[in-house]
């Protein structure tokens, strides 16, 4: 049901879900104070929500706690020290490691001692640039232990992107490894770190390096005269040897736990700030109520610690819940085959697998009959959760039919830190509707708004998806270095609401359908990229006059970035060479993760008479969709030229 304010008042289902959701909105304070009892506080919060200004909400602000204590010490003190906390499985090296809660606590406390000896204290920032190895989890939790703020940077980003994050977060310490392993290649991190230090303004005074046997490079290679001015390079193992284990430092509920950079509409990534208290409460609550996971379960988020899914569901949530988490270094296919995921599920009796639809599409492309699945026992699996991009109904049906366990599409963002809409299996399993991300998670009050901010009351009608303020616990505290940026990016478009940047609709049962973005953000293999930053890079090439980058359909990655460029008058260039140079420019300035390979050189870009690039029409032409020639177009002949360039064998006009 949608009321005349556009609010999804009572999802049509009866029963427990609806009651829990209602209470989370109508009795918000009591609801979240109850949920907060699942966390151990040094000083319990007297209030759940505090409002400092019309747009500044804080959760559990007068509570005091430590997140690493809640993720580790608490379970050891409760006698569960021998329980497995972390399973590390590397399909790249064959390495398999199990760390109990006591083991992980010991390693985290020791590494926190290393960081403290390097001068890191409460509120200081630490950049973590590590591949999928246990040290990534150790480094994050060690920061949390000290009340320091980690900022993890995904390994597929370039030195320039790392430098941008260093300049914004101003960390004193950077933790890294000799490198990461990708199928068929090694990615050496240390030259990238060295370059990022050169490019950045110089806040980093210590770099701590974890050696990996398979990858050349160590702290010793960069220390001494070769080191950038004033930078110490320490070897992780060496530093750990002499370290004094550090205990948990008490922080305020609304002290920052981490900064995670994500793409926005501008070229500058936004540093999303997460708090300690709201985050711990929300994630702990989510494990039981959304995923139906308890301490005896094995939870596997097949993502990367560099993304929000990795932060929330590889590292924090499973450990806060006292469960076992799996850290998998590998791909869904090719490491060694399309049975890789099923092998991990079997070997560790995984209860819930969480990944991106792109991983499932990749498996489907290689193994459409799911022949590999038959080789493994995956009966431990109670559900497959998918998020990060739209789950197309075809992929949903394929996975749902093949796996014989529920497939749950759920929707969330780096900003929210956990699901906004889901089928809350721990509360009540609701009917599934392919193409929908199901119903609002308790705590989220969702509305569909038109361009003027008026509620769209008609079921099925698309609009901007907005969340009525306040966001529940776990939502972003702000953008690092810019209070105004938070309000202008998210809160000013629709006063009283957080604008998600996604568009979609609610149906008559209150199920949400997320259809796409309303801004320039695209989603390539579940990785969020800004077309604005890609365009910025392309225009650096001296031959380029203008360019447009858009997300076009890709059968495996959901979307891929396609670039359209025009050349400066008089520029004489070899087109193949230019395309290769542009692809390399993106690799160098953004990183391989952009997976940018698609460039079309045009005489002119399709534009309106006022000079606006007709992005939607370009995308429709590339995707082979029918399109209308916009009445404001400067010159319709440009569309024919574009069609011929991208579909050389197609008729010039597709039917309307
Ligand atoms: N470090 C360094 N490079 C990385 C990297 C990392 N952590 N992750 C990816 N890359 C590189 C890849 O090696 C590749 O480089 P190349 O252009 O030299 O070949 C490039 O970035 C693109 O990688 P990717 O997008 O992963 O494409 P792919 O074709 O190698 O693999 C999939 C396709 C679908 C198998 C892969 O994207 C995948 O597993 N996706 C899962 C998505 C996911 O976990 N999303 C997280 C949100 S939940
Ligand atoms: P990120 O911040 O990288 O997690 O990306 C968040 C964005 O990914 C959202 O704003 C959506 O555009 C998209 N997204 C995430 N999950 C889903 C989903 N289940 N269905 C559709 N889009 C999704």
UniProtKB/TrEMBL annotation:
Protein name (Swiss-Prot/TrEMBL): Propionyl-CoA synthetase
Broad enzyme group: ligase
Residue ranges annotated for the Acetyl-coenzyme A synthetase N-terminal domain, each copy included: 17-71
Lineage: Bacteria, Bacillati, Actinomycetota, Actinomycetes, Micrococcales
Family: Belongs to the ATP-dependent AMP-binding enzyme family.
Keyword tRNA-binding in annotation: no
Organism in which the protein naturally occurs: Cryobacterium arcticum
Domain named AMP-binding enzyme C-terminal: residues: 534-612
Entry-linked PROSITE patterns: AMP_BINDING
Pfam family, one: ACAS_N
Family annotation (Gene3D superfamilies): 3.30.300.30, N-terminal domain of ligase-like
Segments forming domain AMP-dependent synthetase/ligase: 77-470
GO molecular function, one term: propionate-CoA ligase activity
EC number, UniProt record: 6.2.1.17
Alphabetically ordered keywords of this record: Ligase
PANTHER family documented for this protein: ACYL-COA SYNTHETASE, ACYL-COA SYNTHETASE SHORT-CHAIN FAMILY MEMBER 3, MITOCHONDRIAL
Gene responsible for this protein: prpE
């Amino acid at each position: 049901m949608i009321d005349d304010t556009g609010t999804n008042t009572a999802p049509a289902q009866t029963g427990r879900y609806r009651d829990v959701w209602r209470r989370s909105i109508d009795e918000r304070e009591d609801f979240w104070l109850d949920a907060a009892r699942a966390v151990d506080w040094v000083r319990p919060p007297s209030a759940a929500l505090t409002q400092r200004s019309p747009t500044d909400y804080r959760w559990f602000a007068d509570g005091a706690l430590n997140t690493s204590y809640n993720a580790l010490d608490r379970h050891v003190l409760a006698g569960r020290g021998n329980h497995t906390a972390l399973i590390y499985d590397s399909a790249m090296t064959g390495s398999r490691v199990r760390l109990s809660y006591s083991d992980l606590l010991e390693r985290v406390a020791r590494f926190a001692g290393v960081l403290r000896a390097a001068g890191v204290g409460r509120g200081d920032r630490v950049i973590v640039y590590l591949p999928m190895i246990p040290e990534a989890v150790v480094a994050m939790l060690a920061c949390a232990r000290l009340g320091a703020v980690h900022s993890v940077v995904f390994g597929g980003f370039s030195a320039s992107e790392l430098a941008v994050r260093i300049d914004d977060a101003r960390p004193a310490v950077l933790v890294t490894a000799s490198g990461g392993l990708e199928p068929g290649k090694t990615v050496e991190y240390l030259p990238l770190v060295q370059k990022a230090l050169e490019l950045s303004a110089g806040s980093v005074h210590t770099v701590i390096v974890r050696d990996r046997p398979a990858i050349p490079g160590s702290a010793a290679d960069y220390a001494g005269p070769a080191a950038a001015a004033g930078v110490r390079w320490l070897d992780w193992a060496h530093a750990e040897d002499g370290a004094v284990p550090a205990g948990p430092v008490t922080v305020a509920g609304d002290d920052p736990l981490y900064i995670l950079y994500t793409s926005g509409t501008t070229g500058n990534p936004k540093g999303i700030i997460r708090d300690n208290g709201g985050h711990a409460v929300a994630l702990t609550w989510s494990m039981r109520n959304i995923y139906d996971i308890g301490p005896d379960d094995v939870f596997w988020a097949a993502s990367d610690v560099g993304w929000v899914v990795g932060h929330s569901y590889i590292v924090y949530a499973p450990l806060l819940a006292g469960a076992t988490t799996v850290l998998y270094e590998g791909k869904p296919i090719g490491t060694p085959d399309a049975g890789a995921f099923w092998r991990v599920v079997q070997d560790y009796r995984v209860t819930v697998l969480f990944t991106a639809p792109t991983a499932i599409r990749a498996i489907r492309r290689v193994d459409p009959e799911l022949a590999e699945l038959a080789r493994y026992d995956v009966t431990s699996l109670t559900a497959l959760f998918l998020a990060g991009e739209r789950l197309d109904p075809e992929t949903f049906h394929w996975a749902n039919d093949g796996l014989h366990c529920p497939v749950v599409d759920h929707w969330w963002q780096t900003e929210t830190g956990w699901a906004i809409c889901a089928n809350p299996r721990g509360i009540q399993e609701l009917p599934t509707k392919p193409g929908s991300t199901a119903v609002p998670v308790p705590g989220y009050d969702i509305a569909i708004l038109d361009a003027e901010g008026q509620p769209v009351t008609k079921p099925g009608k698309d609009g901007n998806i907005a969340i009525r303020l306040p966001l529940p616990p776990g939502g972003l505290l702000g953008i690092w270095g810019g209070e105004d940026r938070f309000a202008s990016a998210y809160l000013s478009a629709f006063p009283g609401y957080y604008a998600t940047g996604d568009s979609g609709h609610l149906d008559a049962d209150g199920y949400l359908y997320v259809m796409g973005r309303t801004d320039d953000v695209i989603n390539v293999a579940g990785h969020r990229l800004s077309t604005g930053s890609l365009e910025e890079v392309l225009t650096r090439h001296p031959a380029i006059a203008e360019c447009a980058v858009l997300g076009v359909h890709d059968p495996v990655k959901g979307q891929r970035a396609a670039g359209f460029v025009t050349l400066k008058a008089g520029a004489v260039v070899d087109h193949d060479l230019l395309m290769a140079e542009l692809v390399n420019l993106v690799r160098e300035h953004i990183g391989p993760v952009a997976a940018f390979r698609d460039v079309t050189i045009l005489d002119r870009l399709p534009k309106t008479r006022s000079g606006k690039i007709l992005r939607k029409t370009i995308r429709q032409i590339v995707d082979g969709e029918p399109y209308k020639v916009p009445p404001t177009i400067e010159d319709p002949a440009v569309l024919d030229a574009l069609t011929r360039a991208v579909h050389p064998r197609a008729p010039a006009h597709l039917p309307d």
